[in-house]
Each structure stands twice: as C-alpha cells, then as structure tokens.
Amino acid sequence: MTRKTKIDGPVLPDPPGAGPLISSYQFDLPSRLIAQEPAHQRSASRCLFCSRNSDGATEAPFHTLADRLVGDEILVVNDTRVLPARIRCHRQSGGAIEAFLLRPLGQGRWQSWLSPSRRIQAGEILETSGPPLRVIERRGSGWIVELGSEEVLEQIGEIPLPPYIERKKEDPRLQDLDPQRYQTIFARQPGAVAAPTAGLHFDDPLLSRLKKKGVQIVPVTLHVGPGTFKPIEVDRISQHRVDPEWYFVSEESRTMLAKARADGRKIIAVGTTSLRVLESVGRIEEGPDLEAETDLTILPGHPFEHVDGLITNFHLPRSSLLVLVCSFLGRRRTLSIYQQAIDLGLRFYSYGDCMAILPEELDR
User: Fold this and answer.
1) 8 A C-beta contact, residue 38 and residue 197
2) CA 245 to CA 274: how far, in whole Å?
3) In this model, does residue 7 exceed pLDDT 60?
4) Is the whole-model pTM more than 0.70?
5) Section 17-21 average pLDDT
C-alpha cells in the first residue's frame, strides 16, 4: 500500500540560521509509537519517501526503494559493528554495578561509565560472569577500567540497547533477538556503542535487488558513541557541539566516491552517521586510507557538498540528529513529515520505521 500526503504551501528551503532555538525542534510523540522491537522483516518496515525539492511524501514498504532508484546511484553505508558494551558486575561487597564501555584505550583498558559509581574506588575489582573488571582511575565524568581483549567482551557483555527500549528478563525471545537485529547486515568493524539505525532496514534480498539494478554500495566507518543519545541542552543550537567520533574511509571507498562524483552519479547517505563522514572528509578525491575524528555539528545553513539524498530513522525531539535532518530537508518540511508519520502510526527511534529523502528526479 502506498499513500501520498501533500504538505500545504510552497516548498522553500530554510534560510541560514532558521530554527536557532532548540524549542523549534520539539514535537509530541505518543509513547506507543516508540518501537520496542524490530519489524518482522528488515526491509518490510514502513517508509515515508520524499525528495528535497518537491512537495509530498509517499508511504510504502522500505523494500520498494529498489523500484525508486534509477540504478546508477551510490549508497554510502556505515559498516561499524556494535560492541556488547554493557557488562553486569558486582562489587565484592555484593552491590550490583553496571559498566558501559565507551571506547578501547589499548592494552585491555577502556573508557567507561559505571553506575552507580558514588562509592567506587580506584583499584577496586568488580566481579563479572567471566574475568573480573578492574577499576583503574576516574577520568572526567567516567572511569578507566581494565578488562582484557574484545574476545572477553564478547563472552560477558550485552548489546547496549538505547534507554527507550525496555527489556524484561522474563522475555528471553527479545533478548535473544537483539544481538542479531541490533546489528546491520553491513556490520564489519567493531567499535560502536549504538547501531547506525538507518542500515537496519536493509536485508540480503533487498541488497541483491539493488546491486542487480546497478546501485553501488560504498562502506565507510563511523563508530557511533554515546553522545548520539545526548539531547541538546542549550537554548541556541549554535552553541551545541556533538561529541567527537572516530571515522575511517578506505582507499577503495575514496576511489569509488571520487569516480561517482566525476561521473555525476547521485550519492545517498544511509544514515546520519554516513552523512557526517561524507561531510567531514573535505574534498571527495582519490587517496590513501583516511582515518580521523569528527566533531562536525550540522546546523541550518550547512552547505551540503557531497550528499544528494538521505535515508534515516525518525529521531528524538531536541536532538542533534533531528537538527541534522532538518538542516538537510528544511525544518518545516521535516517536522511536517514527522507529524504525518505520527498520524499514520509509524514507529519511531532505533527499531522504528524510516524516511528516505531522495534526489528529486528519483522520487517516484
């Protein structure tokens, strides 16, 4: 089933500085629309298809993406893999502690959060279901802990679902589902603490159809950090900066992107993380492997240089991700489409449905 919805008024781009206050990025979402589990089939999730330069939004299953592309497009995907970064621990006195590993520091040490941490002491040993975790020192708002290799983490860690997804111990069906469904089919490079959720809608049958049609898949890596869930807490969004995140673009991917640009092919980012990588690299050109950190904060008026389209989930109000999407499509249009999604009962956030902002000539 497809459903076309019109937006009243002419389609006009937002001027630079539009929506300078975070209160401009607020919407009311019924709690029943916060997805608690993934769609039965990845590519059967619902999608609102639209374009950057024309009015309207069409609801259809996500797998119809293959029918809406010409066939010479580039889909840029994030191949990061979510670490099982949540570890249930106990102090030797018996108190329960939850460790959330944020990033490896080398030699078995990790930057982490510990909760509750009020009484934790440097040097303390925390018991786990496997090797113990040793608290090294407090650093900033978190802790440095020593655990060992990523193989140890795979044995004792759990997938760190976002706080708005609730799990009950008496429902093992979902607990067994999450390790597989909270990873994209592109996941190769371990290092994220949250999934690049736009990629969750792709499955192997859809990927085969896209490739058969001529669509090229280009991987980049951005290890999603915990800052992805951090709301904007300042009134003026120009004063907000996103947390730095590590990214990597291989020599092969740089070559494919450079050739696509030279040939005039459209580049569609799968997710805000892929978009941030593309907008962080400077010129798209051939070259050696590129590895860096980006704290690029995309605000209204950002001159998008390398992205013609964007596939993205529906994000939290007052979040940097919502601001990014509004900056790409326009705040009025984005929030209007979000309201359409609410009215149609689409599901929101990580396990939810999505929207696909296609180049105008691809929106069918």
Assistant:
1) no
2) 12
3) no
4) yes
5) 69
